[in-house]
Amino acid sequence: MDLLTLLTQPVVSLANMPMSVGDMLGFATGVLCVWLTARAHIRNFPAGILSSAALGLVFLQQRLFADSALQIVFIALSAQGWVQWLRPQHVQDKAAFAPTSLREQVALLAVAAVTTLLLWQVLLWLKGAAPPVDALLTALSLCAQWQLNRRQTSSWAWWIAVDLVSIPLYWSRGLPLIAGLSLVFLLICLRGWWNWRTPAPRRVLGATA
Predict the structure, then answer these.
(1) CA proximity to 157, closest of 72, 100, 76
(2) Which of 8, 138, 118, 160 is nearest to 64 (CA)?
(3) Are 68 and 56 spatial neighbours (Cβ–Cβ below 8 Å)?
């Protein structure tokens, strides 16, 4: 049995919807990743890499090609973020969280819009499932991860938007556990946004949490 079959073969059912090992692994590591991120803990990056690897295979099996390819990008960006957060200036209180200007947010919205339109056309050509929504999720997620790597509080608003789009998409694709994961993400993101707006030294360092 190959790895893709092992991870995507249904093993249990929830609400008459099959769930695989990949679903459950992606759920567990995904929750851990977002919880650690909300606490500004550097170990969110290795947890995120594990989650992306598992979910990438699940999305590939579901023909959500943009979401699957996005997980590869997430792995690369998480590795970059891991290195970035290890730099000395990021463990200092004053450098913990960065502001975002209105101009930057407008630029990111423009990037997200253009990326969505381009990916939409690619996914139509690939005959992927839900091309417009899949493309939108990918664009929003890339912008959110870019801001997270820079420790920008605004990243949480983008992740919240990602979750609001993800929940109905994954449920409609017969992935109830992943839809539930997005709901958990949404709740943790709201808490993370609050935490990052009122940082404590322990959350900033993230070495002993």
Answers:
(1) 100
(2) 138
(3) yes
